[in-house]
Design brief:
This protein is mainly alpha-helical. Helices cover 68% and strands 1% of the residues. Strands 1-2 form a two-stranded antiparallel ribbon. Helix 1 runs antiparallel to helix 8, helix 4 packs antiparallel against helix 6 and helix 11 runs parallel beside helix 12. The termini are close together. 44% of the residues are buried.
Length: 415
């Protein structure tokens, strides 16, 4: 498939959406974060209070994660296929609330496992559905700004939800957190009514062309015919592979007695043109740096004979440095990857299918990261583990820099 530059003026445009619909999108992102935040992070603590052992808790968390990974790609394809995207989100929120109530009322093995499958499977719908509605409402020209706004409201919802649920768990009970999730499902469903279905362009929402030849939904195997998309998928998997195990390994290392950490402050993303050069490159470049800085923490076991600090200018705590690099990079990637995928799938009608496939791939990469990096640390030590993760990130950076073309203002000449 040959790509040729396309003028900005040719970007699909549509009538400006109403303020009611835009406010509905804002609140949907905010409230959906409240609903989603409450299940995963607090589940282990809740189950431990009911005398679940570590193995059973780990199994419950793993089952939910696997269900989420397996359903990402089908969920993206379903979002591409269905016109009723608001209804799909509503069904997903209802299922998530039912899973939360099942955990709260029946904290035994099989009900919890069933709830985790239900929650993990239905949660896969939310990401593609929100992106699809946003693209269908604002069009290609304003999608960049809209996606950033979605992330802002989602992050705000995550913060408010985490604080609220933490207070509920402390002052009321851990069980109350799951009732909180179920209660917030109702306003989340109601706010869907603010989004006017007539303002969601079905063709734009799935990445098809606006006017003229319409893209048709395609199978997941079509994704592998696009070299640029495959390159981006490889980079995405490698980024999350390098990122996922970094913070857990660092925490484990410090927990084993290496508790004097020197770390530098997070670096701001550069202001170079467009997404991948401005955001993805710093995002990936941050991870090799985090890996090598984690090795500095390991070296603190052997301070110099003079007793002076190895890095006298680095006296900050862990919270101010390396973990921030990973979280900022991951947040940047979460926003930018959607925009890159929108570029690469423009005119094909498989925007959400591709988004689901990318989410599946990065989920597998993150899961493998924990296993492989943990095995390396077990056999060769923490320094080898961090060097390995840094090497993966450097390789991803090299692929992105040398082989990945710019995606802005490109189109498919043939679907």
């Amino acid at each position: 498939m040959k790509r040729t530059p396309e003028p900005n003026a040719s970007i699909e445009s549509k009538a400006p959406p109403s303020q009611q619909t835009l406010r509905g999108l804002d609140w949907l992102n905010f409230l959906l974060a409240d609903v989603q935040t409450g299940v995963g992070p607090f589940l282990a603590i809740y189950l431990a209070g009911y005398k679940w052992n570590e193995e059973s808790v780990g199994l419950a968390l793993t089952v939910g994660g696997i269900a989420g990974i397996l359903t990402q790609t089908p969920a993206g394809g379903l979002v591409d296929y269905l016109r009723a995207k608001r209804a799909l989100v509503g069904i997903g929120v209802t299922a998530l609330a039912a899973g939360a109530l099942l955990i709260a009322l029946f904290p035994s093995f099989w009900p919890v496992m069933g709830a985790q499958v239900l929650i993990g499977g239905t949660s896969s719908v939310f990401g593609p559905a929100i992106c699809a509605m946003s693209l269908g409402i604002v069009g290609r020209a304003a999608f960049d700004t809209r996606q950033g706004r979605n992330q802002t409201f989602n992050s705000a919802g995550n913060v408010i939800a985490a604080v609220s649920m933490g207070l509920l768990g402390y002052y009321v009970s851990n069980r109350s957190i799951f009732f909180f999730v179920a209660a917030f499902a109702l306003p989340t469903i109601l706010v869907l009514d603010l989004i006017r279905p007539a303002e969601i362009d079905y063709e734009l929402a799935r990445g098809a062309r606006d006017g003229g030849k319409r893209g048709k939904a395609e199978s997941v195997w079509q994704l592998f015919r696009d070299r640029t998309l495959v390159l981006f998928l490889v980079c995405a998997v490698m980024f999350h592979f390098a990122n996922a195990a970094m913070l857990p390994l660092l925490g484990e290392m410090l927990a084993k007695g290496r508790d004097e950490a020197r770390c530098s402050s997070c670096r701001h993303a550069s202001s170079q043109p467009r997404w991948w050069s401005r955001c993805l490159r710093p995002g990936r470049a941050g991870k090799p740096e985090s890996g090598t800085k984690a090795i500095d923490v390991d070296r603190l076991r052997h301070p110099p004979a003079s007793g002076r600090s190895l890095y006298p200018h680095r006296q900050h705590g862990i919270a101010g440095g390396d973990p921030g690099d990973g979280r900022i990079a991951a947040a940047i990637f979460g926003v930018v990857s959607v925009l890159v995928i929108a570029d690469l799938t423009r005119g094909t009608g498989r925007f959400n299918l591709t988004l689901g496939a990318i989410n599946t791939a990065v989920g597998i990469g993150a899961a493998l990261s924990q296993v492989i990096a943990g095995a390396i640390v077990h056999h060769a030590g923490f320094r080898a583990g961090f060097l390995f993760l840094a090497g993966v990130a450097l390789a991803a950076f090299a692929i992105l820099y040398l082989l990945m073309p710019e995606t802005h203002n490109t189109r498919l000449d043939s679907a």
